[in-house]
Amino acid sequence: MYRKDKFGIIKTSKMSEISSLPLQFLILSFITILSALYVVTSKNPVHSVLALILTFFSISAHYILLNAQFLAIVNLMVYAGAIMVLFLFVLMLLNLSKESEPIKSNLWGIAASIAAGMVLITLTAAFQKSGIAVMPAPSEGIGLVKNLGRVLMTEYLVPFELSGILFISAMVGAVLLGKRDKNSEELVDLNNNNNA
Amino acid sequence: MLNVFHNLEISHYIYLSTVLFSIGLFGVLFRRNAIVLLMCIELMLNSVNLLLAAFTEYMGDANANGQMFVFFIMVVAAAEAAVGLAILVMVYRNTRKTDVSFLDQLKD
Amino acid sequence: MNPIILILGLPLLGFIINGVLGNKLPKIVVGAIGTAAVLGAFVIAILNWSIISQPENNTINLDLFTFLQIDQLSLKVAFQLDRLSIWMTLIITGIGTLIHLYSISYMKEDEGFYKFFAYLNFFIFNMLLLVLGSNFLMMFFGWEGVGLCSYLLIGFWYKNEDYGKAARKAFIMNRIGDLGLLLGMFLIISQFGSLDYSVVFTQIAAGNTSNSMLTAISLLLFVGATGKSAQIPLFTWLPDAMAGPTPVSALIHAATMVTAGIYLTVRCQVLFALSPLTNEIILWVGLGTAVMAALVGLKQNDIKKVLAYSTVSQLGFMFVALGTGAYTTALFHVTTHAFFKALLFLGAGSVIHGMHHEQDIRHMGGLKSKMPLTHLTFLIGTLAISGFPLLSGFFSKDEILTAVFMHNKVAYALLVGSALLTTIYMFRLYFLTFHGQYRNHHYAFEKVHESPINMTLPLMVLAVLSIVGGALNLPAYLTHSEGFLFNWLKPLFMIPQSIHEIDHSTEYVLIGIAVLIFVTGFLIARNIFVTKATIPAETSTGLGGLLQNKFYVDEFYHKVFVRPLEITSSILHDLFDGLILRAFTFGIFPLLKLIGRLNKKVQNGNLEMYLLYMVIAIVLLLGVNLIFA
Amino acid sequence: MELILIPILASLIWAFLPIKSRWIASGLSLIGLVVLLTKYNQGSFPDGLVVFDQPWLGESVRFTMVIDQITWFMLLLTQLLLPIIVLSVKDQNQKLIAWAFLMQAGLNGVFMAQDGLIFYLFWELAMIPIYFITLQFSEKDNFVTTIRFFIYTFVGSLAMLASLIYLALLSGGSFAYADLLNTQLSHAQSLIIGGGLLLAFAVKIPIFPFHLWQADTYTNAPAQGSMLLSGIMLKMGLYGLIRWYMPLAAESIDFYQPIVMTLAVIGIIYGGIIAIRQDDMKRITAYSSLSHVGLIAAGFFTLNASGFNGGLLQMLVHGLNVVGMFLIIDIIQKNANTRNLSELGGIASKFKFFTVLFFIIVIGTAAAPLTSGFPGEFMLLNSVFKYNSIHGLLSGLTIILCAVYMLRIFQKAALGSNEIAISEISFVDYLPLIIVAFTVLFIGLFPQVILEIFPLSVEKLMLEISNAKGVLS
């Protein structure tokens, strides 16, 4: 529990830490966690999607706090924009906007909570043990598009191209999967019978 | 520019993203709707992204390696979402359900 | 050329020629080759007598090649012809020649004629290997080799499965003895680092060896001797070995092979002379064998079985002599016994031949007139073995009795009893066969015929030898000096034999007792089988039954050794190997199946469960890492 | 290297070209023998002749092949037996020959390998053909037996691999024989490593409680499979014992010696006792083999010259004799359609020459003097007796038990009044038998000729072992 800040002052209590935290961080974190919780607890998938978009917005805000301005924009565009719209789109398409999910038993809820809680505890304990406690040093210009573009086109050129290939293959896969199969009619019957 | 926040500790981001990650994990375990499941996975990925960005800042890395990783994770996540949703549509078309507990055909 | 090569080589050559070409050659040629090979060896041995008999204990040596070289231990194929081995060689080849000659007629109708002569020659070769070897290994070669030949010859009529069993029994019992000999050899190797007679015996004579070691070695060697020379407890094979053709019984199971044990002991005289405990054991084993076999011989009805038990009994006599330290006497008895027992067997063979393979003496009788030559020679043999004064057996047996008398009075009394029994059963055999009424209804008396000349000629030669054989080692009271054989072997023994200092009056008393035994036995037998003309019953009861069934030793062995071994074998295979060990080893398969079935429950295809497992695993891994790191 | 490439080539030829002549096959297998003989002079160097040496997996695993005198001798055994076995293959089983060639390659590799991983590689390579041979060419459905055999030996092999890897880690990552040899082990380490190696070899040899695969596999496998297994493959285990186990884990010998000796002696008697009551000739031979190789293993573990020389000699002799026995069983079974002793008999009256050969092989196995079985057994028993007289006495019982069951086989199969229907025995069937019978007599008379092959290497090996043992004590 005893950790030093950059001035070598030993801080002994969590309360003092929290009290010294910047308000922006606290608010953003609060929004992030709350909306994330809503994502997983909301019965309505559409609400979940909207909550998730909110979460992404707050995470983008975090990025700005972290001097990762370009990342924040990209996050908004790709995640909150493209992916989440895709999700919504699918939800609409399949007409799942309503409360259609069967409720799981309490046992499952308890098991899931315990499991997730255990992960939380273990990870926290692991980070505690690693003893990383130094303040982030402020730096300028790293997260700007100029710098990132240079790195992406020099050091990460090959992975960059590879990710292009990945996109193409994902696209082809998605198209293939989405295409209606000739035999699928029979399959539907079969599965309906099974589930009936 | 925003060095008013310089007394922010890396550990705060660690805790934040751990909590986010656990929430996502809980969702994955708890929810049965496959689409929500995918969303929870996105949530987990984002918690990791956040941490990576935080560490980039923390390390003061001029090459921004952490942020690079965030980009690539986004690439993968986008691809995954596309393919995963395609599969889901396909599954839904066949079974009229998006409930993962019915997808136990792996058994045999 | 070294005479040993010829002595060994001729029978081997005969074996190879007869074995390879025998079925293409006419029978008379095969017989001639076989006989000539052994005769040649005999002649060569005779010719070398003078070299050997030089006063300075001359030997002829032959080193052929190294058989095995292990570290410093070098085992050579090497031979020596010394006083002892030339003596044995002469007996083997001499009697061997006669028996070969005899066999030409005896086996002439057999389809395996050439095979028979090949085996016989091979036997002679092995027997010569045994006596001519200059180290224990060579002796062991011959030792096992004669056992093998004995196996082949006992089972000569291979279509009869009982004969096959008898052959196997003989070989296996011999092998038990061989194991003893082999272990003895190992002890010798570890103790003396060599198997050469000269090295080993010199070291023993030097007296550096511990007493217990000498006793252990000599006892193990004696185990070998009991196997080959049919002593208690390994004697039961010899009567069964009579399944072979009669010349085989005469040559192998009476005159030569069974005396290998005596040869071994005499050869290792220095070793045995220094182990008093072993000598005592030898004495009592020999005595027990002599008495027991004589008792059993009283009640046997197969002409060859009687002779077989007689052989066992006489071998017992020889071992008694060895036990008392009278090595010359034992060898003397070996010699005379070879003469008269070969004679008796060949005579019996002649009877069997004349009666067309009838062996039961209850179905004989009155053959005296039909087979005069056989009768006469058989009588001489009977007299010789019974100890009729001045015949060969008289001298040799009397020497044994004297030696035992000096050694142990109880043993003497028992041995005298055994000698009495010998006279009785031999004359019983003689009377039942040649006197009284002819009793066979299946084979007309008129058809009984005397055997041809080449069968009776060996009989006559052997008869003469049986009469005069005693001259080889005349006792001191006749010649006032040590016997010829005694002096002949004297240079050979590194530790001088004890000479029985016995006063003349005692000696004459002993001779008197011997004569008295003979007369008593003769009279008893005559009274029962001539005067009363008793014919042995099919089955006897009480003591008679016990004797007729050979003390149930075979049955005892069967119950105690054979049967349990067979049962153990089945148990080991079916139960232990098949079930228990298998259960232990392959019992893991059902366990794996069970684990698999449990695993199947876990692997139920439910994605959420899989996720849960994964999370639990991650937590566990991280947790363990945290706790232990 | 030719010794590996030629068999593989021959195997490929046989597998894919439609040739069907046993003569050509034996001719092909004789090439190996010729190549081997040309290497004799070089092979007699005690340090061994490096025939091939190339890096394989980086520098830590080198593809090293060395022929020293012991190796040469083992190779001789392999090349000598293979033509005999190939010659006896039935016409309808010609594809078996391809597997046999492949196995030859594997065996040659095993004997020559001077690198732990290469050794393991060839060890397993030799296993594959025998698996297919037993599975495909037997008369009955043989799946369970074969799988059992395979799992059994495979467990052993894995233990060996684990041991070798562990040893290589301790030696600094190198698998080379010399490096493994020079690695100094603590007592516990040597016990683990030695135990793993020993397990693999004990299963393959097999030593007493690990023999369960043997009888069933021999009985159900085709005759040639049994020959390959008992004639050559068992020798892999024995060879491994002296070449790999003893020098590499010498520190553990003191611990394992009494255990292995006792187990081996138990196996000797156990196999002998079981063999006297069986009716299936193959089963008898299987248990007799257990008994005989147990003696060889015991001889090796006595660690004296008599045991080593005798054991090596006996490996060759046992290989020849057991192949001879299986040849005889094969011929009888081919003609009489049974190998059950209670249904056989009377061969002697019709086939005298066959009976003579039969008898020679029987007494050769029963170790009668002047046959090949005797000198080896004499030396082995001598060494065991030297080690401990009780062990010596008990293992000496083998000469009695062996006489019992071998004569029983001979008696019941060849003698007796039964008249079984046997058609003609052809010259092709006789030829391998004649070769075997000849070796029985030849080695029986001149065992020293064989012993002259490997004295220097044996000396060196024993020196290595005693040096390695001396490190600890």
Description:
The complex is a heterotetramer of chains A (196), B (108), C (629) and D (473). Chain A is built from eight helices and two strands. With 196 residues, chain A is mainly α. Chain A folds into two domains: 3-140, Up-down Bundle (Four Helix Bundle (Hemerythrin (Met), subunit A)), CATH 1.20.120.1200; 156-196. In chain A, a hairpin with a 5-residue loop joins strand 1 and strand 2. In chain A, helix 2 (23-41) packs antiparallel against helix 3 and helix 3 (45-65) runs antiparallel to helix 4 (69-94). Chain B has a domain at 32-99. Chain B is 72% helix and 0% strand. Chain B has helices at 10-30, 34-59, 65-95. In chain B, helix 1 packs antiparallel against helix 2. Chain B is elongated, with a radius of gyration of 18 Å. Chain B starts with 9 loop residues before the first helix and ends in a 13-residue tail after the last helix. Mean pLDDT of chain B is 82; it is low at 1-5. With 629 residues, chain C is mainly alpha-helical. Helices cover 72% and strands 3% of the residues of chain C. The mean pLDDT of chain C is 86. Chain D has 473 residues and is mainly alpha-helical. Chain D has one domain (2-472). In chain D, 75% of the residues lie in helices and 4% in strands. Chain D has helices at residues 2-16, 22-38, 40-43, 69-87, 95-112, 116-136, 143-170, 177-182, 187-204, 212-220, 223-248, 253-275, 281-301, 305-336, 352-365, 373-387, 389-414, 427-445, 447-451, 455-472; strands at 49-56, 58-67. In chain D, helix 5 (95-112) packs antiparallel against helix 6, helix 9 (187-204) runs antiparallel to helix 11 and helix 14 (305-336) packs antiparallel against helix 18 (427-445). Chain D starts with a helix and ends with a helix. The relative contact order of chain D is 0.10. Chains A and B meet through helix 2, helix 3, helix 4, helix 5 and helix 6 of A and helix 1, helix 2 and helix 3 of B.
Cα separation of the termini of chain B: 59 Å
Total helices of chain D: the number is: 20
**Mean of all residue-level pLDDT scores of chain B:** 82
Unreliable stretches of chain D: none
Largest sheet of chain D: 2 strands, antiparallel
Coarse morphology of chain B: elongated
Helix proportion of residues of chain D, in percent? over 70%
Low-pLDDT segments, ≥5 res of chain B: 1-5
Total number of domains of chain D: 1
* Class based on secondary structure composition and strand pairing of chain D: mainly alpha
Rg of chain D (CA only):
21 Å
What order do the strands of the largest sheet of chain D run in, or round the barrel if closed? 1-2
Radius of gyration of chain B: 18 Å
- Secondary-structure element sequence of chain B? HHH
State which percent range the strand residues of chain B make up: under 5%
Task: Find the count of extended strands of chain B (DSSP E, 2+ residues).
Answer: 0
Helical amount among residues of chain B, as a percent range?
over 70%
